[in-house]
Specification:
Blueprint lengths: L1 H33 L6 H35 L4 H24 L11 H11 L1 H13 L3 H19 L6 H27 L1
Length: 195
């Protein structure tokens, strides 16, 4: 039984790693094809590191949720080690997506403006991050609150930032990770209830 579990987990990890690599390749292809000239190597590396944040969050959350679901379906419970991972995963994932979202506010400092205007622009761009920090604060010890709050945050994000076909990358890079954070909080909530 244990060998079968580890075999499944290894295969799942391989599939998700391949999907991660294909996702990175796809984003680079579209990025390079939309930009007629090549980008410097350091910028490509920086973009890869930044893009890795939501992609690692997506594929990592899928791995944890699928492993927990399969283990619970097969034995009716989840082992203690995986329980601890599920407890901390939504909190770490929420911090990661908040950090990722706040990185986009740094482009304000490229503008020509006064210091006060730059600071105002920086704060305005970080409103979604601040809201999600408040949600995380209230959800930290209450996974049910985290589930509903991050589920709603994902819906609000879609309403405001995914308005046409060209904004579908926003759905993948922002809304999907937020919903997966909600899914991780849901798993933590249900495991907490079951004792």
């Amino acid at each position: 039984m244990e060998a079968q579990k580890s075999h499944f987990n290894r295969n799942l990890l391989i599939v998700l790693a391949v999907l991660y690599a294909l996702s990175m390749a796809g984003f680079f292809y579209f990025s390079l094809s939309s930009n007629g000239e090549g980008m410097p190597w350091w910028m490509a590396l920086l973009n890869a590191l930044i893009l890795s944040i939501p992609l690692v969050l997506i594929f990592g959350a899928i791995y944890v949720l699928v492993c927990a679901w399969r283990e619970h379906a097969r034995s009716g419970q989840v082992d203690e080690k995986l329980r601890k991972v599920i407890h901390w995963a939504p909190r770490v994932a929420a911090i990661m997506i908040i950090f990722f979202m706040s990185l986009f506010s740094l482009d304000v400092f490229e503008m020509e403006a006064t210091t006060l205007q730059l600071l105002g622009g920086f704060l305005m761009h970080n409103i979604p991050s601040f809201v999600m920090l408040v949600l995380l604060f209230f959800a930290w010890k209450r996974p049910a609150v985290g589930f509903w709050a991050f589920l709603a945050a994902g819906v609000v994000f879609v309403i405001f930032f995914v308005r046409d076909f060209y904004a579908l990358s926003n759905l993948l890079l922002f809304a999907l990770p937020i919903w997966l954070v909600a899914g991780l909080f849901y798993a933590d909530w249900k495991l907490e209830e079951s004792g």
